[in-house]
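Section 4.2 – Deliverable D4.2 (structural model, holo form)

The reporting period included a commitment to supply a predicted holo structure for the target in complex with dioxothiomolybdenum(VI) ion. Inputs used:
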Amino acid sequence: MEKISQSVVKKDHSPKMGGRSVYVADYNTAKNGDGILTGKILHSKVARARIRGVEVPTLPDGYYYVDAKDIPGDNNVNIVLDDMPVYCRDTVEYIGEAIGMVVGPDSKKVDRILSEIKVNYEELEPVLDLRTAKEAFFNYEYGHGDMDKAFAEADHVYEEEFETGYQEQTYLETQGMMAEPEEGGSMYVHGSMQCIYYVHGAVKRVLNCEPEGVHIFQDVTGGGFGGKEAFPSILATEVAVAAKKANAPVRCVFDRREDMEYTSKRHPSICRIRAAVKDGKVTALDCDVTFNAGAYSTLSAVVLQRGIIAAPGVYNVPNIHVTGRALKTNTSPCGAYRGFGAPQTFFAIEMMMDHIAQDLGVESLAFKEAHLAKQNDPTSTCGKYHFPVPVQDMINEVDKVCDYRKKKAEYSKPQTGRYRRGIGMSMIFHGAGFTGSGERDIIKAVTRLHKYADGRVEILASNGEIGQGVRTTFCKIVANELNLPLEKVFYDHPDTARVPDSGPTVASRSLMTVGELLRRASIKLREIWKDGEEQEVEERYRQPDFMIPFSLEKFEGDAYPTYAWAVNAIEVEVDTLTGVTKVLGAYGNFDVGTPMDYNIVMGQMEGGFLQGIGYSSIEKMDYDDKGRIRNNSFSDYLIPTTKDVPNMQCMLHVEKFPDGPYGAKGAGELPLVGVPGAYLEAVEQALGGCKKHKLNHVPFTAEDTLKELMKEAE
Ligand code: MOS
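Output (structure tokens):
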């Protein structure tokens, strides 16, 4: 193992384990010693309505009702398209939308006032069915080759539809934000978040002030998984407006039900794939991807982009046509969750390839292998796989660990007992870093290193620790390059008053992209290092020269500089009496380049892999015919717990990326992305294969299994 990969004690280990970390809910007083007012949101109770009026009872002294009329600037939360209001305009578009906020010193009184407010709704017909939804926030199309010819010449044409459900991030700490008016008139907003500069931009616009008028700080954050990418911008603007009106510190912390029902989750999806096959090979893929964006567009543009780029999978198919739409429904706006659109489409293509193989009567893995993209092959968007594609080697490594090929053959024989087994394999990539030209054109990351006279070095960047270890791994890179003990290098929680904008904590970009800037900054500092002096160096992002620039208009070029890769095998045993599926083995082979810390990376792999198993099997969330999410607690929305960790083996295959620090690539999202394909392929095999039971959706629950088996009895 390389020196940099050797694990250290995480920088935040001791305060977190010792219970000393201060989360936003933990502050007893504001920064200036003042008491903190509690803010609670008046959520819409209906999915779509015109608001005729809001009757607020007479408020006791020190209590406020805050709504859109109190916004000094623009009633728009700056995300991508800026259609999301801070507080609702004249209509509400989903259950949970913020109509206003009640603020006051006593949280029980705030609750009472909230319950006494009467909202006069003129109810409108909501759009709830993704299949009949019409309004597209985003619409993309790309492709290459000659589709008509490929389909005309095909021996077989296959067409199938795949569906995925919601997935809720279920971070341990719910969403929470606090705003404090500062001396000098600026607004200090801090809380649980991934992206301080996103929040900065949003609050600045809503308060209508100069950049100096807003000051954002990331408190200790109890998990994000994407769920704290965009939603904190919404909550931050809401509390900032309230704090402005009350001229006092205001904090709003969601309870679990609010968080599960009203905040962003993974987009439910429908993917239709048409495939042309000639001489045993897939010659064309036509993929149509639909995402349920919810009521406002928030992050759907970028989630959809990542999703459709992955639609043809890890395969090199000469003719490709992909369309993608993010449709509006009157439901909670969907957003980022680990994988960011790709788990949905990889699920579809992996199942499709497996089903075609089964229909052709050829071995599924061999069929997939025959189509694998290789180094220098074009990507789906006519970019290039510039670096080695290690998928075949990774498949062989997984096979070695779990005897995949042998088991696959064995389980394909007819099974009749109560317990039946299956095994499935998926192979996926995760585009490392922000999609498209985002790094070059939008983010333009800047980092600094500040050396103090006593020889300590502080990292100045905007990437937040959300449990992924960035406070530690950033320091390891700098310490390594400067040959300093790790204690001499530190990285505090980011504060917009102190750090430059090195971009958001998203897209598995922090370590690879910002970490590399820090490595280069360290080299600069090393070269000018003078003992006893205070010194500072800066480093800015530059797109690697080898990249084929991505054009969003043409949807063409290198969407990513490189890719992390994963091959997963899942082995299951289905109890045909109860429908319960037991995971006998989950084998994950992950290429994230050089691990910057073995334990941190393995923690990421195991955690993400388990989230993927939950997504595939038990994490079911849906809304009713009124648009209300029914699964709003941990008794109705099940996630895997420590008790549910199966026999899980994660391993690392290292294919170094020359433009990442010491060869590191993005890691955070990768382990979740491929699980649904492997899982459902395994369950389907246990049920007798796709000619008997063609499975096409996740989560695939015990009830779903029983429903399938009941078809046999009929
Ligand atoms: Mo992430 S899922 O790009 O916050």
